């Protein structure tokens, strides 16, 4: 379990380094965000984001039920999370790119999505998290 938390910590550290590099390379201004704020670009983004959050919540509850009570593979659970992660970040990146005052923010969103998706994909591919169940 310690290795898992160390890997998560390293993942977020690497993601932060990539963001710093991209900010300097593309001259992207740092946007002040609160930790649990919603940061919607416009009202349509807010409506789509909340719809996606509700669908994700229901899907995650279903994944947990199917994984722990019906014997579904834990990797299929992680694959469902991967799809939801990509969908959520893609919607945010699209609205940042299309409707934001600073469309370069979408570069940071896509990079964060790519790093998280790659890490989760690697965990699925190499069956790294099956020992947690």
Strand proportion, as a percent range, falls in under 5%
Structural class by sheet pairing and helices: mainly alpha
In N-to-C order, the SSE pattern is HHHH
Number of helical regions: 4
Mean pLDDT, all residues = 91
Q: Domains counted in the coordinates: how many?
A: 1
Kindly provide the radius of gyration, computed on alpha-carbon positions and rounded to a whole number of angstroms.
16 Å
Shape: globular
Low-confidence stretches: none
How far do the termini sit from each other? 11 Å
Describe the structure.
The chain contains four helices and no strands. By secondary structure, it is mainly α. The protein has one domain (2-19, 42-132). The termini are close together. InterPro entries: DUF4181 (IPR025441). This is DUF4181 domain-containing protein. It comes from Planococcus shenhongbingii. The chain crosses the membrane at residues 6-22, 50-68, 74-95, 107-126.
Short structural summary:
This protein has 133 residues and is an all-alpha fold. 74% of the residues lie in helices and 0% in strands. Helix 1 (2-26) runs antiparallel to helix 4 and helix 2 runs antiparallel to helix 3.
Overview features:
133 residues; mainly alpha; 4 helices
Secondary structure layout:
Blueprint lengths: L1 H25 L16 H26 L5 H26 L5 H21 L8
Helix pairs in contact: 1-4, 2-3, 3-4
């Amino acid at each position: 379990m310690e290795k898992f938390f160390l890997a998560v910590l390293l993942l977020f550290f690497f993601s932060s380094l990539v963001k710093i590099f991209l900010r300097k390379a593309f001259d992207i201004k740092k946007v002040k965000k609160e930790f649990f704020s919603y940061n919607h670009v416009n009202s349509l983004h807010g409506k789509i984001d909340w719809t996606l959050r509700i669908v994700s919540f229901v899907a995650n509850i279903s994944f947990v039920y199917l994984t722990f009570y019906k014997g579904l593979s834990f990797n299929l659970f992680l694959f469902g999370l991967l799809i939801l992660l990509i969908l959520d970040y893609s919607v945010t990146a699209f609205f940042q790119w299309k409707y934001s005052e600073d469309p370069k923010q979408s570069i940071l969103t896509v990079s964060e999505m790519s790093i998280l998706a790659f890490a989760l994909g690697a965990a699925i591919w190499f069956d790294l998290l099956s020992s947690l169940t």
